[in-house]
Amino acid sequence: MKKIVLFLLVIATMFVTSCDKEEFLDQPLYGRQTLDDFFANSENSEFVINGIYRKVNGESWWQVNFQRQINEMASDDNWAGNTAQPRPDITGIAEYNVFPGSTYFNSFWESHYIGITRANLALEQISVADIDEDKKAQFIGEASFLRAFFYFDLVRNFGGVPIVSSYQEILDPSINDKKRASVEDVYAFIETDLKDAIKGLPRKSEYPPADLGRATKGAAQSLLAKVYLYQEKWGLAQSMSNTVMESGEFRLEPDFADLYRIGNAHGMESIFAIEFINNPTFREIGGQYSITNGSRGDRGWGWGAPTSDLENAFLSEGDDIRLRSTIIKHGEPVFGDPAVTEFDGKPTENKPGRTNRKYYTPVGERPEPYSRGQIPGQYIHIRLADVILINAEAAYFNNDPTTAKNSLKLVRDRVNLTTNMSLSGTALRDAIWKERRLELALEQHRLYDIRRQKINGVPRIALILGPSGSFVKYNTEISTDPFETTNLNEPQNSGTLFDPNIHMLWPIPPEEIQLSRGNIVQNPGY
Q: Is 62 exposed, middle or buried (0-12, 13-18, 19+ CB in 10 A)?
Protein backbone atom coordinates (compact mmCIF):
# COMPACT_ATOMS: atom_id res chain seq x y z
CA MET A 1 0.00 0.00 0.00
CA LYS A 2 1.42 3.36 -0.99
CA LYS A 3 1.42 6.51 1.13
CA ILE A 4 -1.64 8.71 0.89
CA VAL A 5 -0.47 11.16 -1.75
CA LEU A 6 -2.49 12.91 -4.40
CA PHE A 7 -1.95 10.19 -6.99
CA LEU A 8 -4.21 7.81 -5.07
CA LEU A 9 -6.63 6.53 -7.66
CA VAL A 10 -10.39 6.76 -7.54
CA ILE A 11 -12.40 3.76 -8.60
CA ALA A 12 -12.25 4.51 -12.29
CA THR A 13 -15.54 2.78 -13.10
CA MET A 14 -17.46 4.45 -10.31
CA PHE A 15 -16.46 8.05 -9.64
CA VAL A 16 -16.25 11.17 -11.75
CA THR A 17 -16.11 14.84 -10.82
CA SER A 18 -19.30 15.94 -12.52
CA CYS A 19 -20.72 19.45 -12.30
CA ASP A 20 -24.11 17.89 -11.56
CA LYS A 21 -24.27 16.83 -7.94
CA GLU A 22 -26.43 13.82 -8.91
CA GLU A 23 -23.98 12.44 -11.48
CA PHE A 24 -21.28 10.77 -9.47
CA LEU A 25 -21.20 7.49 -11.38
CA ASP A 26 -19.22 6.83 -14.52
CA GLN A 27 -21.72 4.24 -15.64
CA PRO A 28 -25.16 3.16 -14.48
CA LEU A 29 -25.62 0.68 -11.65
CA TYR A 30 -27.39 -2.48 -12.67
CA GLY A 31 -28.48 -3.42 -9.19
CA ARG A 32 -27.56 -3.08 -5.54
CA GLN A 33 -25.82 -6.44 -5.73
CA THR A 34 -23.13 -4.88 -7.93
CA LEU A 35 -21.97 -2.63 -5.11
CA ASP A 36 -22.27 -5.42 -2.58
CA ASP A 37 -20.00 -7.59 -4.68
CA PHE A 38 -17.48 -4.82 -5.17
CA PHE A 39 -17.13 -4.14 -1.43
CA ALA A 40 -16.79 -7.81 -0.59
CA ASN A 41 -13.03 -7.58 -0.08
CA SER A 42 -10.71 -5.28 1.85
CA GLU A 43 -8.69 -4.25 -1.20
CA ASN A 44 -11.68 -2.74 -2.98
CA SER A 45 -12.95 -1.12 0.20
CA GLU A 46 -9.54 0.48 0.70
CA PHE A 47 -9.59 1.64 -2.91
CA VAL A 48 -12.81 3.55 -2.23
CA ILE A 49 -11.39 5.11 0.93
CA ASN A 50 -8.32 6.23 -1.01
CA GLY A 51 -10.62 7.97 -3.47
CA ILE A 52 -12.10 10.10 -0.69
CA TYR A 53 -8.67 11.48 0.20
CA ARG A 54 -8.35 12.94 -3.28
CA LYS A 55 -10.99 15.51 -2.37
CA VAL A 56 -9.18 16.82 0.72
CA ASN A 57 -7.13 19.16 -1.46
CA GLY A 58 -9.15 18.79 -4.64
CA GLU A 59 -7.98 17.07 -7.78
CA SER A 60 -6.57 20.16 -9.48
CA TRP A 61 -5.12 23.47 -8.30
CA TRP A 62 -8.32 25.48 -8.75
CA GLN A 63 -10.88 23.14 -7.17
CA VAL A 64 -10.07 23.62 -3.48
CA ASN A 65 -6.50 24.78 -2.94
CA PHE A 66 -6.84 28.10 -4.70
CA GLN A 67 -9.99 29.07 -2.78
CA ARG A 68 -8.06 28.45 0.42
CA GLN A 69 -5.31 30.68 -0.95
CA ILE A 70 -7.84 33.40 -1.84
CA ASN A 71 -9.14 33.21 1.74
CA GLU A 72 -5.65 34.22 2.89
CA MET A 73 -5.76 37.16 0.46
CA ALA A 74 -8.97 38.30 2.15
CA SER A 75 -7.19 38.64 5.52
CA ASP A 76 -4.56 41.02 6.88
CA ASP A 77 -1.78 38.48 6.27
CA ASN A 78 -1.81 38.60 2.46
CA TRP A 79 -2.31 40.88 -0.48
CA ALA A 80 -3.73 39.34 -3.63
CA GLY A 81 -0.19 40.14 -4.74
CA ASN A 82 -0.15 39.64 -8.52
CA THR A 83 -0.47 43.08 -10.13
CA ALA A 84 0.58 41.97 -13.63
CA GLN A 85 -2.63 40.10 -14.47
CA PRO A 86 -6.07 41.73 -14.17
CA ARG A 87 -8.14 39.02 -12.47
CA PRO A 88 -11.25 40.56 -10.89
CA ASP A 89 -12.55 37.06 -10.17
CA ILE A 90 -9.66 36.71 -7.70
CA THR A 91 -9.04 40.25 -6.50
CA GLY A 92 -12.78 40.84 -6.13
CA ILE A 93 -12.91 38.23 -3.36
CA ALA A 94 -9.68 39.44 -1.78
CA GLU A 95 -10.97 43.03 -1.74
CA TYR A 96 -14.56 42.10 -0.73
CA ASN A 97 -16.08 43.17 -4.01
CA VAL A 98 -17.45 39.65 -4.17
CA PHE A 99 -19.06 38.02 -7.20
CA PRO A 100 -21.35 35.24 -5.89
CA GLY A 101 -20.96 33.10 -9.01
CA SER A 102 -17.20 32.78 -8.68
CA THR A 103 -15.69 29.63 -10.15
CA TYR A 104 -13.71 29.22 -6.95
CA PHE A 105 -16.74 29.17 -4.64
CA ASN A 106 -18.54 26.80 -7.01
CA SER A 107 -15.67 24.35 -7.32
CA PHE A 108 -14.96 24.44 -3.57
CA TRP A 109 -18.59 23.57 -2.78
CA GLU A 110 -18.84 20.93 -5.50
CA SER A 111 -15.55 19.22 -4.68
CA HIS A 112 -16.46 18.95 -1.01
CA TYR A 113 -19.87 17.45 -1.73
CA ILE A 114 -18.32 14.91 -4.09
CA GLY A 115 -16.01 13.98 -1.22
CA ILE A 116 -19.02 13.68 1.08
CA THR A 117 -20.78 11.45 -1.46
CA ARG A 118 -17.78 9.16 -1.66
CA ALA A 119 -17.63 9.01 2.14
CA ASN A 120 -21.36 8.22 2.32
CA LEU A 121 -20.98 5.37 -0.17
CA ALA A 122 -18.05 3.97 1.79
CA LEU A 123 -19.86 4.19 5.13
CA GLU A 124 -22.97 2.46 3.82
CA GLN A 125 -21.21 -0.34 1.99
CA ILE A 126 -18.23 -1.06 4.22
CA SER A 127 -20.36 -1.23 7.36
CA VAL A 128 -22.09 -4.33 5.96
CA ALA A 129 -19.14 -5.78 4.05
CA ASP A 130 -17.80 -9.18 5.01
CA ILE A 131 -14.22 -8.10 5.64
CA ASP A 132 -11.74 -8.16 8.51
CA GLU A 133 -13.33 -6.37 11.48
CA ASP A 134 -10.25 -4.33 12.37
CA LYS A 135 -9.93 -3.13 8.80
CA LYS A 136 -13.63 -2.39 8.69
CA ALA A 137 -13.35 -0.24 11.82
CA GLN A 138 -10.38 1.62 10.34
CA PHE A 139 -12.09 2.27 7.01
CA ILE A 140 -15.29 3.46 8.69
CA GLY A 141 -13.20 5.70 10.92
CA GLU A 142 -11.38 7.18 7.93
CA ALA A 143 -14.62 7.84 6.03
CA SER A 144 -16.23 9.41 9.11
CA PHE A 145 -13.22 11.65 9.71
CA LEU A 146 -13.08 12.78 6.09
CA ARG A 147 -16.82 13.49 5.94
CA ALA A 148 -16.49 15.60 9.08
CA PHE A 149 -13.47 17.36 7.55
CA PHE A 150 -15.50 18.30 4.46
CA TYR A 151 -18.48 19.57 6.43
CA PHE A 152 -16.22 21.60 8.73
CA ASP A 153 -14.71 23.30 5.69
CA LEU A 154 -18.17 24.00 4.29
CA VAL A 155 -19.71 25.39 7.49
CA ARG A 156 -16.73 27.70 8.07
CA ASN A 157 -17.05 29.15 4.60
CA PHE A 158 -20.78 29.17 3.90
CA GLY A 159 -22.58 28.75 7.24
CA GLY A 160 -25.38 26.20 7.43
CA VAL A 161 -25.36 23.81 4.46
CA PRO A 162 -27.52 20.87 3.36
CA ILE A 163 -26.63 17.71 5.29
CA VAL A 164 -26.47 14.70 2.98
CA SER A 165 -25.84 11.73 5.23
CA SER A 166 -26.39 8.76 2.92
CA TYR A 167 -25.46 7.72 -0.58
CA GLN A 168 -29.04 6.76 -1.37
CA GLU A 169 -30.14 10.39 -0.95
CA ILE A 170 -28.08 11.32 -4.00
CA LEU A 171 -29.96 8.78 -6.11
CA ASP A 172 -33.36 10.13 -5.03
CA PRO A 173 -34.88 13.04 -7.01
CA SER A 174 -35.91 14.59 -3.69
CA ILE A 175 -32.25 15.59 -3.23
CA ASN A 176 -33.26 18.84 -4.93
CA ASP A 177 -35.64 19.55 -2.06
CA LYS A 178 -32.83 19.65 0.48
CA LYS A 179 -32.68 22.82 2.54
CA ARG A 180 -29.78 24.27 4.46
CA ALA A 181 -29.37 22.84 7.93
CA SER A 182 -28.64 25.27 10.74
CA VAL A 183 -25.03 25.94 11.68
CA GLU A 184 -25.72 24.22 15.00
CA ASP A 185 -27.03 21.10 13.28
CA VAL A 186 -24.05 20.93 10.92
CA TYR A 187 -21.66 21.15 13.86
CA ALA A 188 -23.61 18.47 15.73
CA PHE A 189 -23.32 16.21 12.68
CA ILE A 190 -19.56 16.86 12.50
CA GLU A 191 -19.13 16.09 16.19
CA THR A 192 -20.94 12.76 15.82
CA ASP A 193 -18.77 11.78 12.85
CA LEU A 194 -15.58 12.64 14.69
CA LYS A 195 -16.60 10.73 17.81
CA ASP A 196 -17.34 7.73 15.60
CA ALA A 197 -13.98 8.15 13.88
CA ILE A 198 -12.12 8.25 17.20
CA LYS A 199 -13.57 4.84 18.12
CA GLY A 200 -12.27 3.05 15.05
CA LEU A 201 -9.11 4.83 13.93
CA PRO A 202 -5.64 3.56 14.84
CA ARG A 203 -3.07 5.79 16.48
CA LYS A 204 -0.38 7.24 14.23
CA SER A 205 2.19 4.93 15.85
CA GLU A 206 0.06 1.90 14.95
CA TYR A 207 0.23 2.52 11.20
CA PRO A 208 3.08 0.99 9.17
CA PRO A 209 5.30 3.59 7.44
CA ALA A 210 3.60 2.98 4.09
CA ASP A 211 0.26 4.11 5.53
CA LEU A 212 1.40 7.38 7.07
CA GLY A 213 -0.94 10.13 5.92
CA ARG A 214 -4.11 8.26 6.70
CA ALA A 215 -6.44 9.72 9.28
CA THR A 216 -5.58 8.71 12.84
CA LYS A 217 -7.25 8.76 16.21
CA GLY A 218 -5.16 11.84 17.02
CA ALA A 219 -6.29 13.59 13.84
CA ALA A 220 -9.95 13.03 14.71
CA GLN A 221 -9.38 14.22 18.29
CA SER A 222 -7.52 17.30 17.06
CA LEU A 223 -10.22 18.23 14.57
CA LEU A 224 -12.87 17.71 17.25
CA ALA A 225 -10.95 20.07 19.57
CA LYS A 226 -10.98 22.69 16.81
CA VAL A 227 -14.69 22.12 16.14
CA TYR A 228 -15.36 22.72 19.84
CA LEU A 229 -13.22 25.86 19.74
CA TYR A 230 -15.18 27.32 16.84
CA GLN A 231 -18.38 26.80 18.80
CA GLU A 232 -16.86 28.34 21.95
CA LYS A 233 -17.30 25.10 23.86
CA TRP A 234 -14.25 26.03 25.85
CA GLY A 235 -14.20 23.21 28.38
CA LEU A 236 -14.60 20.53 25.73
CA ALA A 237 -11.98 22.16 23.50
CA GLN A 238 -9.51 22.31 26.38
CA SER A 239 -10.14 18.71 27.40
CA MET A 240 -9.91 17.26 23.89
CA SER A 241 -6.79 19.23 22.94
CA ASN A 242 -5.21 18.11 26.21
CA THR A 243 -5.94 14.49 25.27
CA VAL A 244 -3.95 14.96 22.06
CA MET A 245 -1.10 16.73 23.85
CA GLU A 246 -0.80 13.97 26.44
CA SER A 247 -1.14 11.07 23.97
CA GLY A 248 2.59 10.87 23.31
CA GLU A 249 1.84 10.48 19.59
CA PHE A 250 3.08 13.90 18.52
CA ARG A 251 5.95 16.25 19.43
CA LEU A 252 6.95 19.72 18.37
CA GLU A 253 9.70 19.73 15.77
CA PRO A 254 12.83 21.02 17.57
CA ASP A 255 13.64 23.23 14.58
CA PHE A 256 10.73 25.30 13.24
CA ALA A 257 12.36 25.33 9.79
CA ASP A 258 11.87 21.56 9.50
CA LEU A 259 8.06 21.78 9.47
CA TYR A 260 7.85 22.33 5.73
CA ARG A 261 11.07 20.61 4.78
CA ILE A 262 10.46 18.41 1.75
CA GLY A 263 10.11 14.80 2.85
CA ASN A 264 8.81 15.68 6.32
CA ALA A 265 5.07 15.57 5.57
CA HIS A 266 4.44 13.04 8.32
CA GLY A 267 7.05 14.16 10.80
CA MET A 268 6.70 14.19 14.57
CA GLU A 269 4.53 17.33 14.66
CA SER A 270 2.29 16.49 11.72
CA ILE A 271 -1.19 15.30 12.70
CA PHE A 272 -2.97 15.37 9.35
CA ALA A 273 -1.15 16.27 6.14
CA ILE A 274 -1.29 15.63 2.43
CA GLU A 275 2.03 14.67 0.87
CA PHE A 276 2.91 15.66 -2.69
CA ILE A 277 5.38 13.87 -4.93
CA ASN A 278 6.95 14.35 -8.34
CA ASN A 279 6.09 11.72 -10.92
CA PRO A 280 5.71 12.90 -14.54
CA THR A 281 3.72 9.76 -15.38
CA PHE A 282 0.74 11.14 -13.47
CA ARG A 283 -0.94 14.55 -13.52
CA GLU A 284 -1.74 16.66 -10.47
CA ILE A 285 0.10 14.51 -7.93
CA GLY A 286 2.53 17.20 -6.87
CA GLY A 287 2.13 20.47 -5.00
CA GLN A 288 0.65 23.70 -6.34
CA TYR A 289 1.60 26.45 -3.93
CA SER A 290 5.26 26.79 -4.88
CA ILE A 291 3.94 27.99 -8.24
CA THR A 292 0.68 29.74 -7.39
CA ASN A 293 2.26 31.44 -4.33
CA GLY A 294 5.70 31.79 -5.90
CA SER A 295 7.21 35.10 -6.97
CA ARG A 296 6.74 36.17 -10.58
CA GLY A 297 10.50 36.69 -10.56
CA ASP A 298 10.95 33.02 -9.60
CA ARG A 299 8.76 31.14 -12.11
CA GLY A 300 5.64 31.62 -9.98
CA TRP A 301 2.23 33.23 -10.42
CA GLY A 302 2.58 35.73 -7.58
CA TRP A 303 -0.75 35.20 -5.80
CA GLY A 304 -1.14 35.43 -2.03
CA ALA A 305 1.80 37.65 -1.07
CA PRO A 306 2.59 38.37 2.62
CA THR A 307 1.89 41.87 3.93
CA SER A 308 4.31 44.20 5.70
CA ASP A 309 1.71 44.21 8.48
CA LEU A 310 2.38 40.51 9.05
CA GLU A 311 6.13 41.06 8.87
CA ASN A 312 5.81 43.84 11.46
CA ALA A 313 4.00 41.42 13.80
CA PHE A 314 7.06 39.15 13.77
CA LEU A 315 9.45 42.07 14.20
CA SER A 316 7.49 43.49 17.14
CA GLU A 317 7.95 40.17 18.92
CA GLY A 318 11.63 39.82 18.05
CA ASP A 319 10.64 36.61 16.28
CA ASP A 320 13.45 36.16 13.76
CA ILE A 321 13.29 32.35 13.73
CA ARG A 322 9.73 32.09 12.46
CA LEU A 323 9.98 35.21 10.28
CA ARG A 324 12.83 33.81 8.17
CA SER A 325 10.88 30.55 7.65
CA THR A 326 7.66 32.39 6.77
CA ILE A 327 8.44 35.41 4.58
CA ILE A 328 10.95 35.87 1.76
CA LYS A 329 11.62 39.51 0.86
CA HIS A 330 12.82 41.02 -2.39
CA GLY A 331 16.55 41.58 -2.49
CA GLU A 332 17.29 39.42 0.54
CA PRO A 333 18.75 35.89 0.75
CA VAL A 334 16.37 32.95 1.06
CA PHE A 335 16.78 31.21 4.40
CA GLY A 336 17.71 27.58 3.88
CA ASP A 337 18.51 27.96 0.19
CA PRO A 338 22.21 28.72 -0.37
CA ALA A 339 21.58 29.05 -4.11
CA VAL A 340 19.64 32.31 -3.65
CA THR A 341 21.51 35.18 -2.05
CA GLU A 342 19.32 37.94 -3.53
CA PHE A 343 15.71 36.95 -4.05
CA ASP A 344 13.75 38.42 -6.95
CA GLY A 345 10.38 39.31 -5.45
CA LYS A 346 9.49 41.23 -8.62
CA PRO A 347 7.97 44.25 -6.79
CA THR A 348 6.93 45.80 -10.10
CA GLU A 349 4.52 42.89 -10.59
CA ASN A 350 3.96 41.84 -6.99
CA LYS A 351 2.39 44.29 -4.57
CA PRO A 352 4.56 43.68 -1.48
CA GLY A 353 7.69 42.14 -3.05
CA ARG A 354 7.31 39.26 -0.58
CA THR A 355 6.69 35.52 -0.92
CA ASN A 356 5.53 32.68 1.33
CA ARG A 357 8.63 30.76 2.49
CA LYS A 358 6.64 27.78 3.80
CA TYR A 359 5.63 26.69 0.31
CA TYR A 360 8.86 27.75 -1.39
CA THR A 361 10.88 24.94 -2.99
CA PRO A 362 14.67 25.39 -2.70
CA VAL A 363 16.37 25.58 -6.09
CA GLY A 364 18.37 22.40 -5.52
CA GLU A 365 15.20 20.40 -4.78
CA ARG A 366 13.16 21.50 -7.77
CA PRO A 367 12.19 18.89 -10.33
CA GLU A 368 12.43 19.60 -14.03
CA PRO A 369 10.17 20.61 -15.49
CA TYR A 370 9.40 22.83 -12.49
CA SER A 371 5.66 23.00 -13.00
CA ARG A 372 2.42 23.17 -11.06
CA GLY A 373 1.14 19.76 -9.99
CA GLN A 374 4.59 18.16 -10.01
CA ILE A 375 6.34 19.71 -7.00
CA PRO A 376 7.21 17.53 -3.98
CA GLY A 377 6.31 18.72 -0.50
CA GLN A 378 3.28 18.78 1.77
CA TYR A 379 0.25 20.65 2.93
CA ILE A 380 -0.24 20.29 6.68
CA HIS A 381 -3.87 20.67 7.70
CA ILE A 382 -3.35 19.99 11.41
CA ARG A 383 -0.17 20.02 13.47
CA LEU A 384 0.62 19.87 17.15
CA ALA A 385 1.41 23.58 17.63
CA ASP A 386 -2.10 24.40 16.39
CA VAL A 387 -3.58 21.99 18.95
CA ILE A 388 -1.44 23.43 21.76
CA LEU A 389 -2.66 26.93 20.92
CA ILE A 390 -6.24 25.66 20.81
CA ASN A 391 -5.57 24.40 24.33
CA ALA A 392 -4.18 27.77 25.39
CA GLU A 393 -7.12 29.73 23.99
CA ALA A 394 -9.74 27.35 25.34
CA ALA A 395 -8.09 27.32 28.78
CA TYR A 396 -8.06 31.12 28.86
CA PHE A 397 -11.79 31.34 28.15
CA ASN A 398 -12.37 28.41 30.51
CA ASN A 399 -10.95 30.52 33.38
CA ASP A 400 -7.75 28.49 33.59
CA PRO A 401 -5.03 31.09 32.94
CA THR A 402 -2.23 28.92 34.34
CA THR A 403 -2.82 26.22 31.73
CA ALA A 404 -3.24 28.88 29.06
CA LYS A 405 0.18 30.37 29.85
CA ASN A 406 1.88 26.99 30.10
CA SER A 407 0.60 26.01 26.66
CA LEU A 408 1.56 29.37 25.23
CA LYS A 409 5.05 28.88 26.64
CA LEU A 410 5.42 25.48 24.97
CA VAL A 411 5.09 27.04 21.54
CA ARG A 412 7.23 30.10 22.26
CA ASP A 413 10.04 28.10 23.83
CA ARG A 414 10.72 26.37 20.54
CA VAL A 415 11.62 29.68 18.87
CA ASN A 416 13.53 31.05 21.86
CA LEU A 417 10.94 33.64 22.86
CA THR A 418 10.30 34.33 26.53
CA THR A 419 6.77 34.15 27.90
CA ASN A 420 5.49 36.68 30.40
CA MET A 421 4.01 34.33 32.99
CA SER A 422 2.38 37.26 34.79
CA LEU A 423 0.05 37.94 31.85
CA SER A 424 -3.62 38.06 32.73
CA GLY A 425 -6.95 39.24 31.40
CA THR A 426 -7.23 40.52 27.86
CA ALA A 427 -3.44 40.87 27.60
CA LEU A 428 -3.16 37.08 27.90
CA ARG A 429 -5.93 36.59 25.37
CA ASP A 430 -4.24 38.93 22.91
CA ALA A 431 -0.89 37.20 23.40
CA ILE A 432 -2.47 33.83 22.55
CA TRP A 433 -4.18 35.26 19.48
CA LYS A 434 -0.97 36.90 18.32
CA GLU A 435 0.88 33.63 18.81
CA ARG A 436 -1.60 31.86 16.55
CA ARG A 437 -0.95 34.49 13.89
CA LEU A 438 2.83 34.11 14.08
CA GLU A 439 3.02 30.35 14.51
CA LEU A 440 0.48 29.46 11.82
CA ALA A 441 1.09 32.38 9.45
CA LEU A 442 0.34 31.68 5.78
CA GLU A 443 -0.96 28.18 6.58
CA GLN A 444 -4.52 29.30 5.78
CA HIS A 445 -5.91 29.68 9.28
CA ARG A 446 -5.98 33.47 9.59
CA LEU A 447 -9.30 34.37 7.95
CA TYR A 448 -11.17 31.75 9.96
CA ASP A 449 -9.48 32.86 13.18
CA ILE A 450 -10.32 36.55 12.87
CA ARG A 451 -13.88 35.74 11.86
CA ARG A 452 -14.51 33.62 14.97
CA GLN A 453 -12.52 35.59 17.57
CA LYS A 454 -14.53 38.31 19.28
CA ILE A 455 -13.77 41.39 21.36
CA ASN A 456 -16.77 42.56 23.37
CA GLY A 457 -18.99 40.54 21.07
CA VAL A 458 -17.57 42.08 17.87
CA PRO A 459 -15.75 39.75 15.45
CA ARG A 460 -12.09 40.77 15.22
CA ILE A 461 -12.26 40.88 11.44
CA ALA A 462 -14.64 43.86 11.72
CA LEU A 463 -11.98 45.69 13.73
CA ILE A 464 -9.19 44.79 11.29
CA LEU A 465 -10.97 45.30 7.94
CA GLY A 466 -13.58 47.80 6.80
CA PRO A 467 -13.18 51.57 6.35
CA SER A 468 -12.09 52.06 9.98
CA GLY A 469 -10.23 48.77 10.33
CA SER A 470 -6.72 48.75 11.78
CA PHE A 471 -5.25 47.01 8.72
CA VAL A 472 -6.79 49.50 6.32
CA LYS A 473 -5.65 52.43 8.47
CA TYR A 474 -2.13 51.05 8.68
CA ASN A 475 -1.86 50.76 4.91
CA THR A 476 -3.46 54.11 4.09
CA GLU A 477 -2.17 56.29 6.93
CA ILE A 478 0.95 54.73 8.48
CA SER A 479 2.80 52.37 6.15
CA THR A 480 5.95 53.54 4.41
CA ASP A 481 6.79 50.11 3.01
CA PRO A 482 8.84 50.76 -0.15
CA PHE A 483 7.13 48.02 -2.17
CA GLU A 484 3.50 48.25 -1.06
CA THR A 485 3.25 52.04 -1.21
CA THR A 486 4.77 52.29 -4.68
CA ASN A 487 2.98 49.44 -6.45
CA LEU A 488 -0.58 50.75 -6.34
CA ASN A 489 -1.92 48.48 -9.07
CA GLU A 490 -3.49 46.67 -6.13
CA PRO A 491 -5.31 49.34 -4.09
CA GLN A 492 -3.61 50.33 -0.85
CA ASN A 493 -7.00 50.40 0.89
CA SER A 494 -7.75 46.76 0.11
CA GLY A 495 -10.25 45.48 2.67
CA THR A 496 -12.10 48.75 3.04
CA LEU A 497 -15.23 47.26 1.43
CA PHE A 498 -15.55 44.59 4.13
CA ASP A 499 -19.05 44.62 5.63
CA PRO A 500 -19.63 42.47 8.74
CA ASN A 501 -23.31 42.16 7.83
CA ILE A 502 -22.34 40.36 4.62
CA HIS A 503 -18.79 39.07 4.58
CA MET A 504 -18.64 36.86 7.64
CA LEU A 505 -19.55 34.11 5.16
CA TRP A 506 -19.05 33.56 1.45
CA PRO A 507 -22.01 33.34 -0.94
CA ILE A 508 -23.71 30.05 -1.70
CA PRO A 509 -22.98 29.16 -5.36
CA PRO A 510 -25.99 30.39 -7.38
CA GLU A 511 -26.08 27.19 -9.45
CA GLU A 512 -26.75 25.23 -6.24
CA ILE A 513 -29.67 27.51 -5.43
CA GLN A 514 -30.98 27.02 -8.96
CA LEU A 515 -30.60 23.22 -8.81
CA SER A 516 -32.46 23.19 -5.50
CA ARG A 517 -35.35 25.14 -7.07
CA GLY A 518 -34.83 27.83 -4.45
CA ASN A 519 -34.91 25.48 -1.47
CA ILE A 520 -31.33 26.52 -0.66
CA VAL A 521 -31.42 30.19 0.38
CA GLN A 522 -28.57 32.61 -0.32
CA ASN A 523 -26.56 34.18 2.49
CA PRO A 524 -27.62 37.75 3.39
CA GLY A 525 -26.23 40.57 1.28
CA TYR A 526 -25.44 38.51 -1.81
A: middle
